[in-house]
Specification:
This protein is an alpha+beta fold. The protein is built from eight helices and eight strands; from the N terminus they run αββαααβββαβαββαα.
Amino acid sequence: MVTDQTLEQPFPRPLSGAVVETLPSALAPARTVLEGHHVRLEPMNATEHTEALYHASHDSEQALKVWDYLLSGPWPDVESYRSVIRQQSAELDPVFFAIRSLDTGQVCGQASFLNIKPQHGSIEIGHIWFSPSLQKTRAATEALFLMIRYAMDDLGYRRMEWKCNALNSNSRRAAKRLGFRFEGVFYNHIIVKGKNRDTAWYSILDYEWATLREMSERWLEPTNFDSNGQSKTSLSELTLNRSANS
């Protein structure tokens, strides 16, 4: 039986000191569009995205919850948020994307690449929030899959990281559902909004990715969904059983 306790045990990695036979590409992620069947990730643009992102994350009590575990936010009005999006639009690490639903045409979330180390082939996805309309949908899974696939396949990275507040159970479940392995907790890591944050670390390594890619692609196939849009199989079961048994 697969349990959270099983999956929270660090697992053996390749030996430190082993020779890296194939060096990473040393390519940095570009500010480029990543498009799937249900979402398009657009390089952050304050002119195009600020108002839509603000309303998607501030217009209801449920929407405001996306800020509970993030490093900053929420903001009192669109104009104060605009300065944040302008900064995000200008940065190259992190590289921010706005997430647009191809079903509705609406901007409904954001994510970024950060802690980018091209020569070492290490990268993280973070600063993630999804509007209520995007949460727990096929489109949300596809958005993260597109980012991981771009880094691991197109850019040839060897390590994909996921870090979150150790109290953020939703983020931790999302990481494990996508196949990230738990590596441990950094205690007293940072101070966020005046409170201590312990940070949980997860990763996908290059030799794990082919299996995880196939699982995600299989889950995202249209044939895996019924007429009501409900998935017939569980991505969590696929990846968690793989995590526990390998």
